C-alpha cells in the first residue's frame, strides 16, 4: 500500500463544528506531483439492527436536511470522545427507540465515504430488546418516529427509496443473507 501513499505537506483547518471538521491538505503524490485533498473529519458512528421478539426490525423515520426529505433508517448516532462503540450503540438505541439491550453482536464496520471522509461506522445487531421503564431524552434537535417492519416490508421501503441510506440497506442485505443460510 505504501506505493500509493500521499504525503501531507500542509494542512489548513477550515471549519471545526459540532459533528465534523473540514481540512484541506496539500499532498505530494506518489509520482512527485502535488494536489489538494478536502477532508471531512468525523468521530465515527454506530448503528443498531434491533429485532423484536416477533422478528420485526425497529426503524426510525427522521428528516435529513441535506436531502430535504425524511428517511427510514436503523437507529444510529455518532461516537462521543473516548466512548466505546458498544456504549454508543446502547445509548442511541435507548434514545431513539425506547428499547435497551444487554446483548449486542458486532456485525461489521466500514468507512462511509473514504474518498473525502474518515468516518467509520460500526453496525451491531440485537435480538434481545427490552422496553425502557422511563424514556431517555435524546438530542434536543432530533425528532424521530418509530416503525416496526418485517424484512419483506423493509425491502419494499428500499425499493420505494423510503429506505435509501447505506447503513440501512446493508442491514437489510445482512438480514436477508441470514434467511438464506
List keywords for this structure.
alpha+beta; NUDIX_hydrolase_CS; 4-stranded mixed β-sheet; NUDIX hydrolase; elongated; Nucleoside Triphosphate Pyrophosphohydrolase; 3-stranded antiparallel β-sheet; NUDIX_hydrolase_dom; 40% strand; 2 domains; 12 strands; hydrolase; single chain; 181 residues; NUDIX_hydrolase-like_dom_sf
How would you describe what is shown here?
The chain is 20% helix and 40% strand. It has 181 residues and is α+β, with helices and mostly antiparallel strands. The protein has 2 domains: 2-41, no CATH class; 45-180, Nucleoside Triphosphate Pyrophosphohydrolase (Alpha-Beta Complex), CATH 3.90.79.10. The strands form 4 sheets. A 4-stranded mixed beta sheet has the order 7-4-10-9. A 3-stranded antiparallel beta sheet has the order 1-2-3, with no helix packed on it. α2 packs across α3 (166-180). The model has no long low-confidence stretch (mean pLDDT 94).
Overview in brief:
Residues 40-176 form the Nudix hydrolase domain. The protein has 181 residues and is of the alpha+beta class.
Topology overview:
Layout: E1 7-16, E2 21-28, E3 34-41, E4 45-50, E5 57-64, E6 69-73, E7 76-78, H1 85-97, E8 99-100, E9 105-111, E10 120-126, E11 130-131, E12 144-149, H2 151-159, H3 166-180
Parallel strand pairs: 4-10
Antiparallel strand pairs: 1-2, 2-3, 4-7, 5-6, 5-12, 8-11, 9-10
Amino acid at each position: 500500500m505504501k506505493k500509493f501513499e500521499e504525503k501531507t505537506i500542509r494542512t489548513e483547518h477550515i471549519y471545526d463544528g459540532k459533528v465534523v471538521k473540514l481540512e484541506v491538505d496539500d499532498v505530494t503524490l506518489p509520482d512527485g506531483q502535488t494536489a489538494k485533498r478536502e477532508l471531512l473529519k468525523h468521530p465515527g458512528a454506530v448503528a443498531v439492527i434491533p429485532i423484536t421478539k416477533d422478528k420485526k426490525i425497529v426503524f426510525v423515520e427522521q428528516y435529513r436536511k441535506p436531502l430535504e426529505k425524511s428517511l427510514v433508517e436503523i437507529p444510529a448516532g455518532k461516537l462521543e470522545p473516548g466512548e466505546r462503540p458498544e456504549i454508543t450503540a446502547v445509548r442511541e438505541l435507548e434514545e431513539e427507540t425506547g428499547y435497551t439491550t444487554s446483548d449486542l453482536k458486532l456485525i461489521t464496520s466500514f468507512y462511509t465515504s473514504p474518498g473525502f471522509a474518515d468516518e467509520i461506522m460500526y453496525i451491531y445487531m440485537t435480538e434481545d430488546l427490552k422496553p425502557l421503564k422511563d424514556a431517555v431524552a435524546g438530542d434536543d434537535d432530533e425528532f424521530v418516529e418509530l416503525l416496526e417492519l418485517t424484512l419483506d416490508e423493509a425491502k419494499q421501503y428500499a425499493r420505494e427509496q423510503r429506505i435509501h441510506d447505506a447503513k440501512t440497506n446493508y442491514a437489510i442485505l445482512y438480514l436477508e443473507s441470514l434467511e438464506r443460510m
